[in-house]
Amino acid sequence: MMIAQEDGIPSAAKKMERNRVVDTLFERDDFRGYLRDYFEEERRLRPRFSLRAFSQKAGFQSMGFLSLVLSGSRNLGEESTNSVCQALGLVGDAALMFTTLVRHNQSRTAEDRLRTLEELKNLRKARAFARAGSHQFPYWEDWHHVAIRELVVHAPWGGDYAKLGGLLRPHISPEKARRSVEHLVALGLVRQD
User: Fold this and answer.
1) What is the rounded distance in angstroms from the CA atom of residue 41 to the CA atom of residue 22?
2) What is the pTM of this model?
């Protein structure tokens, strides 16, 4: 089962060409690599971009601070992590993902690393199922589509549409259950294995 998602990360550069690295945040395991790729792409898109300008945008006093962070010589604290999120234009779950990734990469104990790894997994999982595209709005046209979607994944119906329709209250016909499953497959909300 898969639910389509739309781009949920605000771009720091929507005025001109977008920096597509922003969209890869939820796939990343290393915030430093993410920042290096982001800065490299910004330089490609906007030749006047510099770490100095980004540092000013983030409100850092030291212009060399980000270079030290990128090299691994310095870590980001909570306040500086928030400043980087704002400068990148990350909000909501994207800002939480970046912050958790920073904490994970900078963890000093195995317990902290395991805890933040679990948080990263949960953020990625939530993102994968968070949004339905506008083409999927017909999903909500009839109440039984929502119920059928859950039942085809979790109930032992074995491909028997009469049994599937009978699991609902009120029951629906086998033909209506079949059409509902076909509708869900066409919308990309479920897939057959």
Assistant:
1) 10
2) 0.60
